[in-house]
What does this fold into?
Amino acid sequence: MKKRQLTPQGKRIIKRLVDLGKTQVWLCKQVGTSKMYMNFILHGERSGEKYLPKIYEVLNLEEDEHQSA
It folds into this structure.
């Protein structure tokens, strides 16, 4: 079975969570989604279009559509 890879955006979100000392569960509660759906977003299986602006706001990240890894 192939291991799922984080998208560059997913890596950036996870790095920011680590920097802040926060968990994915905390982030899910802040943006109002499930941990399963958050994982889909981080791995590029869902666009997360509805949640990404809130994720970036909560994490105080600049939203950058063309973020490179």
Remarks:
- Residues 9 and 66 are 9 Å apart (CA to CA).
- The chain is about 55% helix and 0% strand.
